[in-house]
Amino acid sequence: MSDTTNDPMEDWNEMVEEMNDAVADSVEQNMKAQAAFMESWAEAVEGSMPEEDEVAEGFEGYNRAYEVWMDASEKMFERTTDAAQGEDVEPSEVRDIWLQSANEAFKEVMGTSAFAAANGQLVEAMMDMQEEADEVTQDTIQQLGLPTRDDVMEVGERLVELERRQHAVEQKLDEILEEL
Question: Is the pTM higher than 0.70?
Fold first, then answer.
């Protein structure tokens, strides 16, 4: 074979090696970002233990919810017995018993400070995770040579500025044409 046939092959090998290096760098950065994310998640979970009085209030809320469910079960048993004895019991009545008890039970649980604290911590952790995932995504996109969100926003801002300038030039041209 001649040297000219080796050159394209060498070029190909060099390009593939560069691509492999870029992918390896991207994977390494992703692993570092994921490790940082897991560390922050573990710290968030570690610090998320509610106070003793919040736990107690939470248990009270769950107990009240349990009582609501037990009352609904008793009502259902009574209405089922009535239906078995020949009384006309509407299916909507049965449905309403469960819907009303579900609403009351959820109200009992969701009205506790323990639920509010847990929900707040969950939202905060989710927002942190979303931010971490967003950073990993942007880093990966950048490593792959694709435009990031920041790049696209910068192009958009430049486009808006160019449109503003074009509009100003058009207005000046209109004024000059009116004077002529």
Answer: no
